[in-house]
Amino acid sequence: MSSIVNKKWIKFLLFTGLIFTALTFTSCGYYSFKGSLPSYIQSIAISLFDNQAPDPGVPEELNQLLRDMFIDDNTLKVVDESKADLLLTGTIQSIRVKPAVVRAGEQVTEDQLVVTVKAKCEDLKTGKALFNKPFDYSVPLDATAGLDERQQAISEAFKYIAEDILNATLGAW
User: How, if at all, do strands 50-51 and 86-103 pair?
Assistant: First the structure.
């Protein structure tokens, strides 16, 4: 009698384990932002961002990063505005350096480079803005840093901001 009970118990445990495993794997399936976009959204145009910062040439750098990220992501095709479903526009509002670490005698030893970009993504079919908000990122910068280090810090901030804009665009649905 106990061997029959043991066999039933083993079958029950195997069946329960199998069901649990099946449910676990089906709930952890592949996830993609592509499925969350409306079917008519296939492309995006990225306008050259305006520049309110004193640094020349920065809009081109940010725009190239955005284009590269959208192309690499491959969810939306990057096209001219006349062919686009979405339009991404924006303004580099500021690139500023502020003291971050002050030592005795009020000597600044480390600064923070803060980049703020306002971006807007508009659905050209409906005319609705998916988002219209600022994105900012801070990068530590040595207080004695020269122009090359400043430019590297700006580039680093732009990488994070471009990634945030990409995620906001694809996740706005």
Answer: parallel
- Predicted local confidence at residue 35, as pLDDT: 45
Backbone phi, psi, residue 103, to 5°? -95, 180
3-state secondary structure of 83: helix
Instruction: Find, among 155, 151, 153, 52, the residue nearest to 110 by Cα.
Output: 153
CB atoms under 10 Å from CB of 151, counted, come to: 15
User: Which CATH number does 38-171 carry?
Assistant: 3.30.160.150
All structural domains of the chain with their residue ranges? 1-30, 38-171
> Which positions ≥6 away from 127 have C-beta within 8 Å?
none
Q: What is the mean pLDDT of residues 137-142?
A: 93
Stretch among 5-14, 54-63, 101-110 having the lowest mean pLDDT: 5-14
